Every structure is written in structure tokens, then in C-alpha cells.
Amino acid sequence: QVQMGRPGEGPAFVAGHVLQVPHARRVPHVPVPHAAYELSPSLPFPVQRESRPSSAVASTSVFVALLSARAMRRALRRSLTRRRAAKTEKGAVENTRRKAAKTEKGVVETRDEGPKNIFAAHLRSSEVVSGLKTGKLVRGQLRMMRESCLVGSVQCRGEEIIVAGSLALNRAVDGDEVVLERLDAAQVEAYDGAAKRIRHKVGGGRDFSEAEEMEKVLESKFNERSKGRVVSIVKRSKVTLVGSLQPLDEEGQPGLGEGERLFIPSNGRFPFVIVKQPPEDVEGMRIAVAIGVWDRSSEYPRGRWLRTIGEAGNLDVENELILTEHYVKDEPFTEEVLACLPPADFRPGPKDLKGREDFRDVCVFSIDPPDCEDVDDALSCERLPSGNYRIGVHIADVTHFLHPGTPLDDEAAGRCTSVYLVGRRIDMLPSMLTTRVCSLRADGDPRLTFSAVFEITPAGEVVNESFCKSIIKSRGQLSYEEAQKRLDSPDDSSEMTIAIRRLDKLAKIFRAKRVESGALELANTEMQFETDSETQLPTNLFKHTSGATNKLIEEFMLLANQRVAKFISDTFKESSVLRCHPPPKSKFIEALATLLKCHGMELRFGS
After folding, report:
1. Contact indicator for 192, 211 with CB cutoff of 8 Å
2. What is this structure's pTM?
3. For labelling, which of 57, 96, 342, 439 has a CA lying 20 to 30 Å from the CA of 131?
């Protein structure tokens, strides 16, 4: 067909021509002479007017047909080229998009809710159940590294999976029961890149980079371990945080609403918490806070104020802060627990002595710090006819009164250990048991013990050993200073003093052998406080000195521990637990090597 129009009208027309519009869309429009043709919409191409010779019609039609065919071929070639290019480009784009989606999976999620979300959505319950069944996901308890709320780990089926960075943690905190998805190399790189870009404001114009904080905690050994990200929080840990509100002059945090404040926990394993301004004045006070919800769009969780502990800097307040921060239970024992205790005037009867070795006629004594009430170990040393020594290390048998499954046992398991503060002690067990019934005091009453007994030559060789339940009657409750005076006194030839001298000689032999075999000597300086008897406030500070009697006790406690551990390991191979100390941190060794090099010394380390 021919596009209607006057000669020269518009950019589509050439002077004296009309524009032929072919049926094929990809064939270009063809300009033809205007005067020679009748324009008929019903014909596929223009026809010559009657006044023109018939040969002109034929020649023009052939010309138009040839022109159209060539144009069509060129158009088809261009079309095919464009198709191939588009297909290639589309494939490349899709490839890039898929790779990017895989790499950024979990870091940049598709969010229907909008661009304000910081964290990825947690998986639905059905997805979690399916993932756990197939092994794609794993479940465990999150434990944060010391003094870090950005790096944690989860023990799953004997494997430790590292979770590093706020995006990978995905709103999980220390103690939460979480579900993890393992990350591949590309995803780990993406999360590490995100950590370099994320900075957290801490008030006063200060901020910090996540990557910098993670680098302080993570060591090279963690690079070989699996990395993961939290995809679901199964159970939140119920923990009470203690700390202070950020000072008002350092406020101005993004995301804080009207009347909201930023709470800074004293435990560095937990993030800052957004709380409503408490109803009372808490500036400069220590407060307790519970974590509540943590939205995807919030940098920090929200919490609620529980109570005000007291003024910062007060001794009792700071002590309570320490105990709460470390989950130390400081509450009176219940009547149910106290009902499990023996009578206050307990004396061992025939039933208690059954199966025990009797050491009541042996010179047994203890050496402890002054004013020690819970005396839990004692020593004895006898000369045998063979010239060897029979050494007894006697430990208070508390388990005789602590039966499995009782309220007393459950309470002790919950408290785990006794905690000592300056001028204060929080007991794991009721003091009536630890300081009276089981304490190996030299008060004339027999005590139930568990003993490690060794036959040792004067040269310090252990030739025989046995482990048994026993009963003793201590003849002396000495302090380190009192034992040292006996050791240094040449005129004292009492049975107890002679035993102390023999033990001291053996202890020095043991120590020399340990050092020769590569034992590490740590020259730590222990500081001690002298406190006021009424206020318990420190009045003096002095350096603790370790004398020969301190080392004596140390060597025989170490001997007993080593021998008992070997006996357990040899006897109960499948159920014994070996305590392994981690190797020194490489960054500290490198820093030491650099320091020594400055002083002309070379430190060689590594395997």
C-alpha cells in the first residue's frame, strides 16, 4: 500500500514521491514517484495511471519488487543478528542475576515489605522442618564469643559452625536455640563484604565497623571451620541484662522513637537494647532489662525495664551487677534443699565407716590460707620399713551427703561452683555442709574423705598407688605462714614438722622433673586486698608472695590429679573426658616476637 500524503509533506516523503508501505513489517518503506501512480488502498502496490505506457508499469513493478526483496533480505539479516545479540545478552544478564542472587542469598533478600528492612525474614515452620529432615539445615544453641555480640558459634552434631556479623546472626543473641543454614564460599565472601560496610553508632559521635570488631575476635583457625547464617530462632533465651542507659548527651541514635533510650549492657556478648524511658530517674544508675521483640527493620532489639539495681560505683551494686551478668544464683537455699542435709552434730557411724580405709591414727594435717573455713584437702606422710614414703592426699567426701536426683543435687548442679568476691562468697552448697560437716578441721572430730595413696621412693619415683574412700582425724589446721615457720625452724622435730619437711623435699624433686620435661612456669603476680571488717571496702593492696609451702601443696594436688586422671582414662576408656588447653593465640605470639626483636632477642615459634 502507499501512504497517503502530498508531495514533500513531512519527513517521510521525498519531493515528487510517495512512500510505499510494504506488508512485511521488517521491510523498510520505499519512496516511489508520485505522479506516475494511482493510489489504491485495495492493491498491494501502486499502479500506473492510464496515461502512462504499459511498459512503465511493468518496469516500475519489477523495480519495486527487486527493491523490496533486497530490503527484506537486509532486514532479515539485521533481525537475526539482533535476535542472537538479544539472546546472548539475555543469557548473560540471567547468568549474572542468578550468580548474584546465589552470592547475595541471605544478605540481600527480596522484601515485599519495602526497602527499610535490615534483616532477612526467618523461614516458615514448614520450611524449617523440611530443611532439618533433609540435612540442609542444622539446629543448636548459639554461644557468643567472649565480649562480642557479633561472633558466635553453634555446636551441631559434633561440628562447630561459626556465625559472624549482624546479618548472619539475623537477630539471634547468646543462648538462643537457632536453626542454621551453611554458607558456601561465595556467600561467606558476601557476608564479609557486608560487614566491612556496616558501621554502628555508639554515641558521642563514635562508631565502629563490624569487620573490625570481628577481626579482633576471629582467629586464623576459625577460617577452616564452617560458616553459617541463622534462618530461624526456635527458642529465645530468657536472660536478664544489667547495665546503664546511654547518657542523654550521647543520644541521637537512628531508629529511636519518642521517649526511647539506648541501654548498654555490661555483658559484651549482648547487643544494645532500645527501651522506653523508665518511670523513675535512672541517670547514672545500674538497671536490669529484659529483651523483647526484634523487628527486621530495627538495628537493635527492643526490651523492657525490670528494676533499678542502684547507683553506679556502689560496691554492693557493682557486686550484684557482676553476679547477675554471669548468671550466679545468689539466693537463700530453700527448705526443700536444706531438708537433704545431715544433722548439724553429725558424727560418722558404723554404717558410714563400712568399706573405708582408716587413717585416724595417721598424722594428717592441712595447709590453707589464713581464716579458711571450708578445708577440703589434707596431707599425710609416713615412713615405711622399706625406706619409701606412704603419701596420702585426702579430699573431703561431700558426695557421701549429695545423692543424685535430690533437691540438693539439683541445686548444686544449677549453681555449678562456689563464687568468691572480695570479702564475700556465694556457696554452691549450704555452708553447714561445706564449713562444718565436710570441712577437714582439726577439732578432734573424724571426717569422711576420699584418698589417693602413693608409695614414693626418696628419689621421687611413684612405685605404687591406690584410691579409696577413707576416714581421717586431722591433727593440724595450718596456714601457709605457720607451715613455713615449721619448715624453717631447725629445732622443731615434731611428727608434723618432720612430715612437712619430707613432703617439701619430694615436692622439689617433682617440680624439677616437670620443668626438665618442658613444664611452663608462669610468673603471674597475684594481688590481694586488705578490707575493712565492717564496710568490706579495700583499705590496702599488696603483692601475694608464694613460698615453699604453697608450692608443696601445689605439687601434691597436681600429683593426685594426674594419677587419678590416668586411672580414669585407663579404666573407663569410653567415658573418660580429657581436658585440653587451647594453643597460644598466634597474634599474641607474633606481638611478643616483635617486642623481643626490638630488644635484640629472637623468638622462634610454630611447628
Report:
1. yes
2. 0.66
3. 96
